[in-house]
Specification:
It is a single chain. The chain has helices at 4-7, 21-31, 51-57, 70-73, 87-96, 116-122, 125-136, and strands at residues 9-10, 15-16, 35-39, 45-50, 81-82, 101-106, 109-115. By secondary structure, it is of the alpha/beta class. The strands form 2 sheets. Strands 1-7-6-5 form a 4-stranded mixed β-sheet. Strand 5, helix 5 (87-96) and strand 6 (101-106) form a beta-alpha-beta unit. The radius of gyration is 15 Å and the shape is globular. The termini are far apart.
């Protein structure tokens, strides 16, 4: 059985909810990622911040990214998966919520992220095509 822990990319880092978006953008650049999980003061997932969120939700709105926090951008219920979850559960979670990045949690701690690139490296072409159709389908 292939699990979330088998396909995730390790080394994911939180951005604390109180950090500003300019710091989040710097961290994304340093890590070479386009998304960061947002943590509350107890290091629990409270959202995910993407590079697109920073551009569209802050900069394009005329707001100053040095004055807007990651927590202000967190919207909706954050989705995540346990490290020991089967790959079918990973796909179902991503498909059901039409998301392209999924934090992986073990013992209530962030241990990795699953992105589209991780799926491409670990799934068959048919699985990828089916996943993409469901995630990118218009509701």
């Amino acid at each position: 059985m292939t699990t979330a822990g088998d396909i995730m990319h390790r080394g994911a880092q939180w951005i604390p909810a109180h950090e500003t978006l300019d710091r989040a953008a710097q961290l994304m650049r340093e890590l070479g990622v386009g998304a960061l999980p947002i943590s509350d003061e107890n290091e629990r997932l409270c959202g995910i911040l993407t590079d697109r969120d920073i551009v569209v939700g802050c900069v394009a709105m005329g707001r100053d990214p040095s004055k807007v926090t990651a927590g202000e951008m967190a919207q909706g219920t954050p989705r995540w998966i346990e490290a020991d979850a089967d790959i079918s559960e990973v796909l179902r979670e991503m498909e059901d919520h039409q998301i392209r990045r999924l934090p992986v949690i073990e013992n209530k701690r962030l241990v990795g992220m699953i992105s589209e690139a991780d799926l491409v490296r670990n799934l068959s072409e048919d699985q990828i095509a089916e996943w993409a159709e469901r995630v990118y389908a218009k509701s």
